[in-house]
Design goal:
single chain; alpha/beta; TIM Barrel; Methane Monooxygenase Hydroxylase, Chain G, domain 1; ten-stranded mixed beta sheet; eight-stranded parallel beta barrel; 25 strands; globular; binds pyridoxal-5'-phosphate
């Protein structure tokens, strides 16, 4: 589309500041992302602008190591900084409120189970007083392995549990681990009692409460009385009696809840904290020792930077979240006369989202013409007798011509063009218009649309917003939405997206993004913009490389970054169209202000993904080789062509699943 993106401070010269404002970078990216003087996105792993890792530099450095985008970049420094941020927010709130209990954040490994991330959380967590949370048997084993050398690190076990799960947890506790199983339903308490008897231990455990205060947004169903997990109030009461009868009430040390992820409204947190704390105090009054109040996860991330109570944002800061929790728990406990509990949160998204980002390359674009193809229009006007030229084509040609008259009202011209195009489509569908005439009508219509947008580039009237989005470019991008940004497809999650270079240059186009899967859903059509969510993204024109007069096949590299993707995207992503895991690298700041790769996890090869779906790559290779030999023997292809084909086959099986 020809209308340039509406730019902040239009009269000021273009600068890194203007670029940052255009993409709302400070709103969603502070303090971790900025723009360098050379117009590239930089990462400040410690949240300090003095230390900057240039993303273009990293991507080019990876290319020299034969690691091409799409690639996930993980920044360990950002993760550690985020952990410290949460720690400090709670510590400060505890001091300010003179709270008598402590605080632990446990990282739910389901949010991103990649070993390197879990190890980083564990390592920094020892210093910052963090723990881990697991929710299944494989996660339990991963959690036990991760904490093997650090037996004092808390390990909380949520999720559905069978006898084996519970027995493993009980035995780990007997071995000296600080493990705390949480009963999600009454039957799990019975299993706990059985395992405790069998191994002659008094385990420490928690129960999960089903709160009446539900969550909000997409995960509202995690809480509320119809929530999948947790004990109702009457089940909690009967469980206390059951445990008393079994002489195991002394093991009940924690009350837990989780009202959903991405809680965007702080009021929801306040309601849930109040309800859970009241229940906690009641349990203490009933004689349970308690001591720990686990408020689950849910601290949200401001993906679109709007700081609002909406699905992709939050209306509170980490500090406010911490202060509200500490203040509420303290006042309720003080009122009732109960000792302040140790507070646990299971903040996953808020901990890891900022530390991961995806970089991919744009490989082409579909652009609506700004000038009609005059040759095509002439052909359409002359292919039939003058009297038979379809009226809508004449009307569109006339409308286009009127645009150049001084007295022209572009709005009126556009309305005429809309009407004429509608009629043209009806005539074509009824068989009264040739394909050439239809193509000419479309060309004229698009050109009129583009000119109207240009005429209103300063301020676009409301009625043309839809036109702007319809005529936006489509940038084809080498990645799979289903593998790398599953929440963008599945739940319409907005992720901040912007070019990672050329930001010293004003973007002159607007567009949406299409991935390379054969799925029409593989598109991104909502973006974090200057004023919250937008339908199109400001983009730079692609620069063709070496054309021979025909359409461009290749362009100078144009890299895009999708930010805040560290939570949930990697494990939830799927193999749609057999696009596999992307490469993932851990980038670390070195002492001289440069960077190095601490870990490189190569993405799936074609061979890997074929195996996932039970194809045998060796059998594919054998049968293809037989066919090539036979085609050479029958002289359908030459021997050289056969050799090339074998090479493609072998390289292909060991190659990346994305375009290379
Ligand atoms: C029990 C439990 N704890 C913690 C979390 C993490 O939530 P979040 O990533 O929103 O902090 C979840 C995720 O849904 C969960 O189910």
């Amino acid at each position: 589309m020809s209308v340039p993106p509406e730019r902040p401070h239009a009269t000021a010269p273009w600068s890194a500041t203007t670029a940052a404002e255009l993409y709302g970078l400070a709103n969603w990216g502070s303090p971790y992302f900025g723009i360098s003087d050379r117009g590239t996105v930089v990462v400040h792993p410690k949240g300090d602008p003095a230390d900057a890792i240039d993303l273009l530099d990293v991507v080019e450095g990876l290319a020299t190591r034969h690691l091409t985008p799409p690639v996930v970049l993980r920044f360990s420094g950002v993760l550690e900084h985020r952990m410290a941020h949460i720690r400090t927010a709670f510590d400060d709130a505890i001091t300010a409120a003179e709270y008598q209990g402590g605080y632990t954040c446990v990282y739910p490994i389901k949010v991103n189970q990649q070993r390197h991330i879990c190890e980083e959380v564990r390592d920094a967590g020892q210093r910052l007083g963090f723990g881990l949370e697991v929710g299944s048997k494989p996660e339990l084993l991963a959690g036990l392995a991760l904490t093997a050398g650090v037996p004092d690190m808390p390990l909380i076990c949520n999720g559905f549990k069978d006898e084996e799960f519970i027995e493993t947890a009980i035995l780990a506790a007997k071995m000296g681990r600080k493990i705390l199983p949480v009963a999600e339903q009454p039957s799990e308490l019975e299993l706990l009692v059985r395992a405790a008897r069998a191994h002659d231990v008094t385990p420490r455990f928690g129960i999960r409460a089903k709160l009446a205060s539900g969550g909000v947004g997409r995960w509202a169903g995690s809480g509320g009385i119809r929530g999948k997990f947790g004990l109702s109030v009457s089940q909690i009461l009967s469980s206390v009696e059951y445990l008393r009868r079994e002489e195991l009430l002394e093991g009940l040390q924690m009350l837990h809840c989780h009202i959903g992820s991405q809680i965007y409204d702080i009021r929801t947190v306040k309601f849930a904290v109040s309800e859970l704390t009241q229940m906690y105090c009641e349990l203490v009054k009933l004689g349970a020792p308690m001591g720990i109040l686990d408020l689950g996860g849910g601290m949200g991330v401001d993906y679109d930077g709007s700081q609002s109570a909406s699905d992709s944002s939050v209306n509170y800061s980490v500090e406010q979240y911490a202060a509200d929790i500490i203040y509420r728990v303290r006042s309720i406990c003080d009122d009732v006369g109960v000792a302040h509990p140790h507070i646990v949160t299971e903040s996953g998204r808020s901990l890891v989202a900022h530390s991961g980002l995806l970089v991919f390359q744009v490989v082409g674009s579909r652009v609506f013409p700004e000038e009609p193809d005059q040759e095509l229009v002439r052909k359409a006007l002359t292919e039939v007798d003058e009297a038979d030229v379809p009226q809508p084509l004449l009307d569109l040609e006339d409308a286009y011509g009127r645009l150049f008259e001084e007295t022209c009202d572009p709005v009126e011209v556009y309305h005429d063009a809309e009407h004429a195009l509608g009629e043209a489509m009806s005539l074509f569908n009824l068989g009264y218009m040739t394909i050439t005439a239809r193509a000419a009508c479309e060309e004229l219509y698009w050109a009129i649309g583009n000119r109207v947008l240009q005429a209103h580039s300063d301020e676009l009237p409301e009625e043309f917003h839809d036109l702007r989005d319809r005529l936006a470019d489509l940038y084809f991008s080498n990645f799979s939405l289903f593998q790398s940004l599953i929440d963008s497809w599945g739940i319409d999650q907005i992720f901040p997206i912007m070019p990672i270079h050329r930001l010293d240059e004003e973007p002159t186009r607007r567009g949406t993004l299409a991935d390379i899967t054969c799925d029409s859903d593989g598109k991104v059509e909502r973006f974090a913009g200057q004023h919250g969510a937008e339908q199109t993204l400001p983009l730079h024109a692609l620069i063709p490389q070496g054309t021979n007069g025909g359409p461009a096949v290749e362009y100078e590299p144009y890299y895009m970054g999708v930010f805040l993707t560290g939570a949930y995207q990697e494990t939830l992503g799927d193999l749609h169209n057999l696009f596999g895991d992307t490469h993932a690298v851990h980038v670390v700041l070195d002492e001289d202000g440069g960077w190095y790769l601490e870990e490189v996890v190569e993405g799936d090869t074609v061979r890997d993904v074929l195996r996932y779906v039970q194809f045998d790559p060796a059998a594919i290779r054998r049968s293809m080789r037989r066919e090539i030999e036979s085609a050479v023997a029958k002289k359908r292809i030459t021997l050289e062509e056969g050799v090339s084909m074998r090479r493609f086959l072998d390289d292909g099986l060991d190659g990346y699943t994305y375009l290379e």
